Amino acid sequence: MADSNFIDYVKFCSRSGAGGAGSLHFRREKHVPKGGPDGGDGGRGGHIILKGNAQLWTLLHLKYKKHVIAESGKSGEGGRRTGADGKDIILEVPLGTVAKDAETGEKRFEITEDGQEVILTKGGRGGLGNDHFKSATNQAPHFAQPGETGIEEWIILELKLLADVGLVGFPNAGKSTLLSSISAAKPEIGDYPFTTLVPNLGVVAYRDDKSFVMADIPGIIEGAADGKGLGIRFLRHIERNSILLFLIPADADNIKKQYKILLGELEKYNPELLDKQRLLAISKSDMLDDELMTEMKNELPEGIPSVFISAVAQTNLDKLKDMIWQAIHQG
Ligand SMILES: Nc1nc2c(ncn2[C@@H]2O[C@H](COP(=O)(O)OP(=O)(O)OP(=O)(O)O)[C@@H](O)[C@H]2O)c(=O)[nH]1
Ligand SMILES: [Mg+2]
């Protein structure tokens, strides 16, 4: 089993602080027998805030947080003293974190920049003290506002990885083998489907100190967008990649058909994925002889740059990297 230090989904109850009550108070001083109202306002309740942190790669640190609760604001006091605001709680999250309402599934916002802060659950406003309510007809208002209550809601955070190139292929296509042969990442490799259960990122070195980041995600099968296999859970990880590298093994029954199925699943999940640049690599081509390869070249899908590679025999990997680099930098 792949270990699960990689967490890309958490659900928790987020509760902001209530606002402090406004104060109902009258000035009392020896020489002022009938002092006017001087109740101060209540403080604001603490917000729950998400903050982007470019050093984080997973939501693991939030996995065991089931309740996130911010402090309430303090009540106002006499002498027009405003109560202290409740302390905000700031949860740091990796870039690419999407906050959703757990009940409706509705997306609230996405954190995309380092240091970006967005209020997830707003703290209640503090109530106004009676000082605010004096008027010509009521010099001594005997009421003050209560603080607004805090909000309690269930939130889902989902992480979309940010890589330059995302691998797309059926289980067993050789995605993890490719990543491990061109980067230092060591994903698990197996001759059975669904070896990869969590996404892996690898930095691929490219000529003269350049590099790009490649994401290996669990294999996609027909019906994935409808929840089959490991389902759509991992498809979101290719949403933020700038280009997509399709990997189809040389021993596939029908390369064109596999390509169409993969495209279809992406489209069902999110049609915008089809706007991304695509490349096609035919993997495991060490299994082909020259004759077969020539024959297959005529049967590849049209309109997509393609290359025959073998991660095991290390063939055409530089050519593939050139193609990826070009695609990333022309887009
Ligand atoms: N002959 C040959 N076999 C390969 C090559 N690349 C991968 N394989 C084999 O194909 C099988 C699947 O490889 P993986 O890299 O685990 O495939 P994957 O696409 O990551 O599979 P999932 O994680 O299950 O989606 C393994 O038995 C690999 O040894 C290659 O270039 N040539
Ligand atoms: Mg794999």
Automatic annotation (TrEMBL):
GO molecular function: GTP binding; GTPase activity; magnesium ion binding; ribosome binding
Gene3D superfamilies: GTP1/OBG domain (2.70.210.12), P-loop containing nucleotide triphosphate hydrolases (3.40.50.300)
Domain OBG-type G: 163-329
GO BP annotation list: ribosome biogenesis
Binding site for GTP: 169-176, 194-198, 216-219, 283-286, 310-312
Single GO cellular component term: cytoplasm
Cofactor: Mg(2+)
Residues given in the record as Mg(2+) binding sites: S176, T196
EC number: 3.6.5.-
InterPro entries xref list: G_OBG, GTP-bd, GTP-bd_Obg/CgtA, GTP1-OBG_CS, GTP1_OBG_dom, GTP1_OBG_dom_sf, OBG_GTPase, P-loop_NTPase
Signal peptide per UniProt: none
SUPFAM superfamilies: Obg GTP-binding protein N-terminal domain, P-loop containing nucleoside triphosphate hydrolases
Alphabetical keyword list: Cytoplasm, GTP-binding, Hydrolase, Magnesium, Metal-binding, Nucleotide-binding
Compositionally skewed regions (Gly residues) per UniProt: 36-45
Alphabetical list of CDD domains matching this protein: Obg
Disordered as annotated region, ranges: 23-45
Location relative to the cell: Cytoplasm
Domain Obg stretches: 4-162
Keyword hit for Nucleotide-binding: yes
Task performed by this protein: An essential GTPase which binds GTP, GDP and possibly (p)ppGpp with moderate affinity, with high nucleotide exchange rates and a fairly low GTP hydrolysis rate. Plays a role in control of the cell cycle, stress response, ribosome biogenesis and in those bacteria that undergo differentiation, in morphogenesis control.
Protein family: Belongs to the TRAFAC class OBG-HflX-like GTPase superfamily. OBG GTPase family.
Subunit structure: Monomer.
Entry protein name: GTPase Obg
Annotated organism of origin: Algoriphagus ornithinivorans
Name of encoding gene: obg
